[in-house]
Amino acid sequence: MGIEEKAGNLGIVTTTLETVVNWGRTNAMWPLLFGLACCAIEMMGAQASNYDLSRFGMELNRASPRQADLMIVAGRVSRKMAPVVRRLYDQMPEPKWVIAMGDCAACGGIFNNYAIVQGVDEVVPVDVYVAGCPPRPEALIDGIMMLHQKVMREKINGKKEAPIRIEHPLMQVK
Amino acid sequence: MAEPITVPTPQQIIEPALAGRTETMVLNMGPHHPSTHGVLRLVLELDGEVVVNVAPDVGYLHTGIEKTMESKTYQKAVVLTDRMDYLAPLSNNLCYALAVEKLLDVEIPERAQIARVLLTELQRLSSHLVWLGTHALDLAAMSVFLYAFREREQILDIFELVSGARMMTSYFRIGGLAYDLPADFIPTVEQFLAIMPSRIDEYEDLLTANPLWLERTVGVGVIDAQSAIALGLTGANLRATGVAYDVRKAMPYSGYETYSFEIPIGKNGDIYDRYRVRIAEMRQSVKIVQQATERLRELGPGPVVTPNRKVAPPPKREITESMESLIHHFKLWTEGFKPPRGDAYVSIESPRGILGCYVVSDGSPKPWRVHFRAPSFINLQSLAHMAKGRLVADLVALIASLDPVLGEVDR
Ligand code: SF4
Question: Which residue among B64, B146, B168 sits closest to A114, beta carbon to beta carbon?
Fold first, then answer.
């Protein structure tokens, strides 16, 4: 079945370099083990037995930013924490991506006050926004799949796409 | 009188080290560290691998919840309480609701009382499951985490059934519940109760007699009862030292005095005893949920919010039929109710210890001040006392066994 039969025994598949690189990147993404608040519990839920994020090659969290290429900002970022988040982002090697998980990370959520940064995109560039307070594990997985698709579309010349927003189905305007 | 126990500030450790006045090494742990359970920063003073002193630095998750509550009406502030101790949102709801109810002096219907007890006990189970999973994970026992989260998902499904949300339910409102329990609530809970005791046995099979687990926990992080009380330790951490103090027994609320359950206590006050106490607590919670389910079934349907129209809006059906009710509903949600001037303090037993809520009213529809006595925050200050003279690796086990939730520490 598949390409081997068509191509005979040559053992050769033709594709573009871009596709191969991007394919490699999506299937071995290492998220940073980084929980901030309530959303981190749902992120743990997504990695645990019921939702099993390892189906997407994502179960291996790295505690060190130097070994990670995806930062899932799971929770509210306080003014005291913001410089730390930026520093962690700077310590991650290129190429790197950021998912803002939850309303707090996306826009400050219900905390419009002196203590919370109104959206983590004030400190780090965000690729995918996942809405919800907290987002269900399914929503996070959806966000991760979107990011995978986005990575697949990436150009090797390093040009980046605009961020994606994933909103609750009830809030989407048709 | 024993010597007072002091907790150093980070500055007290860092400054002498920078000035080169010490022989010890200063190590910064956190705020991004896999086993500080959130964004806790610890400044460690080390002699080789032995901890000389620990200074916790909190505030990395400061959310301004107490301040924000002052700008919300009483009912709307319930939503904020969910996000403090995010492993036990319902306990927070309950504590805040009880405090405001005390201020207003309203009676809660029986059905709502039972549902509150039932759901907070489920919450205790789910919170202890996260503690168990992450505690084992910190000591490199990965599988317990996966098992614990399997059961936790079932509890979250029950919460979703009653409130529509998995975690941030805001289901307990001032004057009762947000809405009635669904019809298939009791069978779902019973289904869960049927499996839970055997699942707790399963966790115990994995850990209780596991030599590696014993090695890391027995005799580690010991605190005696006297110091524990002096440091304000509460919850399972206090009970592990042998002090049988539980608010559910000492100052019963929501009708806890009518349920039969025991307070599990430990002996040595080490990590292992805390583990045993929490596991035993889970079994007691299952027992309470069982009793509550039976009562709910016997009681049958009934009101779940107080009939006091000054506090709770009229039922939905009435709103569609009568103009006065509609106006009343509108007034209540835009303007809110006005409790009399005064203050009220209520404490409950949250999964982490004594959670207290102090509300001050100036007679306006918004609270003048709300303050929470956060058990995690106060438990955390005993860390330095317990970690002194132990290895850094023990510190990791110690943090997990105290079970702090940083959202509650910083609020
Ligand atoms: S979005 Fe909601 S659940 Fe997530 S961190 Fe903010 S308050 Fe907590």
Answer: B64
The mean pLDDT of B25-50, rounded to a whole number, is 82
Could you identify the atom of ligand 1 that is nearest to the CA of residue A39?
A: 4
Interface residue of A77, A78, A117, A124 to substitute, partner B, most B CBs within 10 Å: A78
Domain that holds residue B93: 65-410
Query: Is A15 contained in some domain?
Result: no
- The rounded Cα A83 to chain-centroid distance in angstroms is 20
Q: Which helix (H) or strand (E) segment is B369 a member of?
A: strand B369-373
Bond into A134 cis (ω within 30): yes
- Record: contact B63-A116, CB cut-off 8 A: yes
Q: For B326-354, how does the pLDDT look when each residue is reduced to its tens digit (9 = 90+)?
A: 888 888 888 888 888 989 999 999 999 89
CB B240 within 8 A of CB B266: yes
What is the predicted pLDDT for the residue at B56? 87
Overall average pLDDT of the A132-138 stretch: 88
User: Which segments of B109-267 are extended strands (E)?
Assistant: 172-173, 176-177
Task: Tell me which residues of chain B, numbers 80 to 99, contact chain A at a CB-CB cutoff of 8 Å.
Answer: 80, 83, 86-87
The answer to whether residue B164 neighbours chain A at the CB level (below 8 Å) is no
**If pLDDT is split at 50, 70 and 90, which confidence band does B128 have?**
very high
Cβ separation B62–A78 shorter than 8 A:
yes
pLDDT at B254 over 80: yes
Cβ–Cβ < 8 Å for A20, A159: no
Identify whether A79 is part of a domain: yes
Report if residue A7 sits inside a domain: no
Q: Which domain holds residue A97?
A: 29-156
- pLDDT number for residue B96: 92
